Amino acid sequence: MIExxxxxxxxxxxxxxxxxxxxLLDGQLQNKPFxxxxxxxxxxxxxxxxxxxxxxxxxxxxxxxxxxHSLGLAIRGIDLSPKMVAVARQRHPELQFDEGSMLxxxxxxxxxxxxxxWYSIIHTPPEQLPVMFAEFHRVLAPxxxxxxxxxxxxxxxxxAQGYGHxxxxxxxxxxxxxxxxxxSHTGMVxxxxxxxxxxxxxxxPQGFFLARKPGKA
Length: 217
Fold this sequence. Notes:
This protein is of the alpha/beta class. The chain is built from 6 helices and 9 strands; from the N terminus they run ααβαβαββαβββαββ. The protein has a single domain (5-212), classed as Rossmann fold (3-Layer(aba) Sandwich). 35% of the residues lie in helices and 30% in strands. It has a 7-stranded mixed sheet, with helices on both faces.
């Protein structure tokens, strides 16, 4: 497939900030109890459905991938940015990290028991989101679970500076109902959602959405 412009600019921006981004994220999860609770819920429902392979799509430096591994998931990370993948491999050599696009995943149909997109859909233009959610559905096995983390709102913000570098990133804020609609259109069923207020280091509410692909677990 022809690579959209936003994919190239997103890759370039995260390649630029990879090292500083990883340093900034260190230890952040420990101060976010609701985020950890949703990740634990995701790990629990995947394991309850007989476990199996899981992928974090848009894994960045691998912080969340490693956390879910510590919760007992057989998980790998996939990211658009080769520099992010290199940082993740250096920090977590015991785990598998590969390059890939969420619009065209190099994964077999129905090969995963869990898909996590932790703030990784936020740079995707609205018209491309149905393609991305269709890929999530394609790679999930029946009975598998999808977890999405996102910024709650209805706006587009552009970042020209970030993590000490010049970048070019569009950030799309989404309503929980829109995320639920995108999942529903693929045939997935909502399991639960959470919206929490912004932490001091955030600019708005944060959302978490869990869905299941129907079928035998």
